[in-house]
């Protein structure tokens, strides 16, 4: 079965899509959606991926050879190297480094502070029998110690 390039839509579907486009144009997203990263982090990921690719090429290794060493399919490694997949796991990054005879070092440093969400007021203590939510002991433990956050 061949994929449809321009699927057929009913006039109602086209009208609904156009309404969504008008709504977005009138009220564009003002806040970055949850789960997205800032530009500096994005550039750092692309830079790391470029370093992996440069290491492979400088060693004269074929993509398929490195993929085999990692235990993944060559197309999956290609998607990583080209930046089409920008969310590799730490395990994948470690396997990638090992396949290149390298070691991945990860560091944590002080950066831009991001506001932390308010903690939930519905907290169960380890010693309570119930969840603590909606009970008369909400937010406190039976031992008299402060709730765990």
Major beta-sheet overview: none
CATH architecture of the domain at 39-99: Orthogonal Bundle
Q: So what's the oligomer here?
A: single chain
What is the first-to-last residue Cα distance?
54 Å
Structural class: mainly alpha
**What is the CATH class name of the domain at 39-99?**
Mainly Alpha
- CATH superfamily heading of the domain at 39-99: lambda repressor-like DNA-binding domains
Mean pLDDT: 78
SSE topology string: HHHHH
Estimate percent helicity: 40-55%
The number of helical segments is 5
Q: Which range does the strand content fall in?
A: under 5%
Low-confidence stretches: 122-149
- Judging from the principal axes of the Cα atoms, what is the shape? flat
In the CATH hierarchy, the third-tier topology of the domain at 39-99 is known as 434 Repressor (Amino-terminal Domain)
Number of strands: 0
Radius of gyration: 25 Å
